[in-house]
Write a structure and sequence with these properties.
- The complex is a heterodimer.
- Chain A is an alpha/beta fold.
- Chain A contains 19 helices and 8 strands.
- Chain A has helices at 3-37, 50-66, 84-88, 96-105, 109-118, 127-138, 161-173, 191-212, 218-240, 251-257, 259-263, 268-286, 310-319, 328-331, 345-352, 362-375, 390-393, 396-407, 426-442, and strands spanning 74-77, 92-94, 151-155, 177-180, 297-302, 322-327, 380-386, 411-416.
- In chain A, helix 7 (161-173) links the parallel strand 3 and strand 4.
- Chain B is of the alpha/beta class.
- In chain B, strand 3, helix 5 and strand 4 (110-114) form a beta-alpha-beta unit.
- The longest helix of chain B has 23 residues, at 148-170.
- Classes of the chains: A alpha/beta, B alpha/beta.
- At the A-B interface, helix 7, helix 8, helix 16, helix 17 and helix 18 of A face helix 5, helix 6 and helix 13 of B.
- Bound molecules: iron/sulfur cluster (2 copies).
- Residues 97, 126, 128, 158-159, 161-162, 304, 358, 389, 391-392, 418 of chain A line the site of one iron/sulfur cluster.
Chain lengths: 444, 366
Amino acid sequence: MNLPAQLSYAVGYGLVGKAALWRQRRKDERAILARMRQPSGQLLAPPLLSSARMKELMSRHYLQARYATGVRKVAWVTSGAPVEILQALGFLLIYPENHAALCGARRKAVDMCVEAEHAGYSRDLCSYARTDIGTVISGKAPITRIPKPDLLLCCTNICQTVLYWYRVLAHHFKVPLIVIDTPFLFEEAQAHQIDFVKQQLEEAIPVAEQVAGRTLSFPTLKDVVHAGKRASELWLEVLNRAQHRPAPITAFDGFTNMGPIVDLRGEPETIRFYETLLAEVDRRIETGVGAVANERMRVLWDNLPIWYRMGWLSGLLAQRGVSIVASDYTYAWGELAPMMDPDRPIESAARVYLHPILNRSTGNKLHSMRRMAKDFQCDGVILHSDRSCKPYSLGQIAQRDWLANEVGVPAFLLEADHSDSRAFSEEQAGNRLEAFIELMEARG
Amino acid sequence: MQIPTRTDAIAIARQRGDRIAGVLPIHYPRALLRAHGVQPIEIWAPPRQDPTAGNAQFQAYACAIVRHGAALLLDGPGRDVDLILVPHTCDALQGLGSVLLDFIKPRQPVLTLYHPRGRRQADRLFLERELRRLGDRLQAVTGRQPGDAELHAAIDTEEAANERLARLCLRQSPAALSDRERYTLVRSREYLPAETFITLVDARLPERQEEAGRPAHDGARRPVRLMLGGIVPEPMSVFDAINGMGAAVVADDLACGSRRLYKRTRGPDPYARLADSLMSGPPDPTLGSPIAERAEYLTTRMRESGARGLLVYDVKFCEPELFDLPQLRDRLSAERLPMLHVEFETATTIAQQTLNRIEAFVEMLQ
Ligand code: SF4
Ligand code: SF4
């Protein structure tokens, strides 16, 4: 540990930063409350009061990261990585995907993608990866300064892309890379697949311990798994509340509020945050507040959000009384909660991390969509055909056809990209959405 | 001896009473299939295949191997294969395998294989168990259960063929065979039985052949020596184009070529041998090889072969290939080994712009 870094951490984060963020949250809450008091007539309900708390939590995390170098060991991890071991070892976790999503939402991603492209990274690569690599090689801080990693943890349960991406990072930073390879489940998980993941987790522990400079405490690991499980359960409860009519929240609220479950699961504060959010959503249900004022149609969203056009999209849909009530993407961070077992942290992690929706077959994804469309009483499904996310998108043509022809739910492919706005045409998307809404209307 | 075509190979295999497997790229245990009486016929984005049926299933941003491969299986000669094997090479082939299994459900059984992305002991153990699983599936499909002796014999034959492949890929003298002849021979490994491949290579390129054979490159100037990288060189006329520019391919880092130079294995357990073999190839981005390891390997191969530059000739939208390129370029240029990256959408002709870029690269190396 170095003293100046610790001092700067204590002052910049502990003393000044946290207090400033707390004040900002109070300000944000007052603004939201003022909007709530305004006469109704808006197309969309005011933002959730909890979103101010969420913003504070995430900002605090990034602020802590900014001062972390020399104070805490930092690990960069993929969004589906088995992070509990690292959390129990005290690592500060950075999720480059989350940072890239933030860049996308704040329209900073294209600049970072261009930086990567100038360095030779193809425009056909995942735009999260390009955003991150562009940030790393340019040394710019589009949102905030991200500390360099001491360790990289990459799990292939969302895609193989992350493996190539993290090899680039490992080569650049010259730090250890732990790969947890999770065989894709074309069918049900088999014993040798679970054993393989378990063995890799076990072998990851000494590597992580060495970087952390301390030994893993299993009671701490158990607590972390317990907290992660509880937060995931709460997250799922929050999302499931949208089964109510009118839906108190939309998938856009889900996209906005998923930061803590991705980045901070396993933290006690995350549990408190989702308890508060759940209570607020319940209050909306009790008072009959719908996220879309005049909810006429309900839609399921497949795939990542279009981060840079969320406002436009939610406004356009709300105008026509369409509420996107659920998304299989946000659901992914909740549905595995029942598999987590704090008493068997490694073994249960091997199962949990093999089973995210992206590590399962296209037929399984259709099954999930079908179930969600039924549970959330959806009139249609929008499948975001995401140009630079192949694992999520390949298979959508068959899924769309099946939903439309076999299940009888109108479904359509919306061409875009999760972070690269250059792959999106607002006019074309708007026209196609209008046509889709008309189709749903015609079906009554 | 003429190189038999895929159609010939299928007819001969059928006469032998073998089943035919349509196999997608890249790595899989040929010997295991052969021991079950199955002749693998690989499917690598055949340029003459009309991709319409594949385009109906996959978005335009899926690579040509997936779109053309799907079309070949759904609407081309691939309809007649007896089984389909989809190795999990990348996210794109994952999509193809899964859509075949869950939606298209062709009349043939669809088998999959997950190749682990590392070379740790855990990877090796997993691969062995994964191969046993594949063996069980093959047994269910074919009704054959080869004993250890049969498996060892099949492995020995494939390893002998691998040595011939190494002879073709590693000892490249521009004089012995033209580039197109050599790579037509290399690529015949995609569908010929090992025995036929061995006979062909031995006839065309005997082990002790002197370097001074038929001059493939006439003219006063010595050709610029290139290493060719990428997944698959389609259309094959790319070799003629390269030669026409005054260059020759003296080494490769092709997924359908040198990246499948597996080593000889030993041991009493055939499945352990199969796993050892599949893990013994050169660095490969689809298998998670670290970039430094790839750079080291490429530098060594270029030095050994006298290649002056690396031409990476890639299928468009191939993520495993694309990610490594900038850092590879940096490492190679530090060694004064220039690299050019071009992409192609599978077609029967090569875009003029691509040819111009290759020509400029060759001129720069002269
Ligand atoms: S390819 Fe898709 S799943 Fe993979 S990192 Fe990019 S957005 Fe995420
Ligand atoms: S060309 Fe690349 S993306 Fe396409 S199947 Fe081959 S390895 Fe996968």
